[in-house]
Design goal:
The protein has six helices and five strands; from the N terminus they run E-H-E-H-E-H-E-E-H-H-H. It is an alpha/beta fold. It has a five-stranded parallel β-sheet, sandwiched between helices.
Length: about 180
């Protein structure tokens, strides 16, 4: 699993998801999965290029959403992930959604993993989320986070994924500031 690459997308200004992302990142790395989280962008590097490369190299994606709308940067990430998944429909996408929050509409067809930010200190609870993610992205066959895109491919291919259309694509009335 050491060569398996997982891209984690989240709004780092949403205090309800930051703690989960930190814990997930650590535990997934301990499980032997290479993760990319946007806080890992090095100083002096062009952030958008590094994120774009990480999305292109990823074998699967975890999309964490909470109470806040996607930030400008997360919206760009999500547009790129959607485009990648359209062209590679077997790539797993695992939405992880704060209890009571709405999943990001572009990923609403994927069965999400709910999380309660008040239970992040419970090792067994967090390990269950990590185990579900690992099983989803590394086990072949039908699983959480993968849908049959065949029926929707034609519709998806007729859409264009441009940053100017990200708000419409994600179904948000507005995108939160970066």
């Amino acid at each position: 699993m050491a060569n398996f690459k997982l891209f984690i997308s989240y709004n780092r200004h949403d205090e309800h998801v930051v703690g989960l992302v930190d814990v997930l990142n650590e535990r997934l790395r301990n499980a032997g999965i290479q993760t990319f989280v946007d806080t890992q962008s090095g100083a002096g590097r062009i952030r958008s290029q590094e994120i774009s490369q990480a999305i292109d190299r990823a074998d699967a994606y975890v999309i964490v959403s909470g109470n806040e709308a996607p930030s400008h940067f997360q919206a760009r990430e999500l547009a790129s992930v959607v485009e990648k998944v359209w062209s590679h429909p077997a790539q797993p996408v695992v939405p992880v959604v704060l209890a009571g929050a709405e999943p990001i509409p572009a990923f609403a067809e994927f069965r999400a993993i709910p999380f309660d930010d008040h239970r992040l200190s419970e090792t067994r609870y967090v390990n269950g989320i990590v185990r579900t993610i690992v099983d989803t992205v590394t086990v072949s066959g039908p699983r959480v986070g993968v849908i049959d895109h065949t029926a929707r491919m034609h519709e998806w291919q007729t859409r264009t994924v441009e940053i100017g259309h990200t708000i419409e694509l994600l179904g948000n009335d507005g995108i939160a500031g970066h």
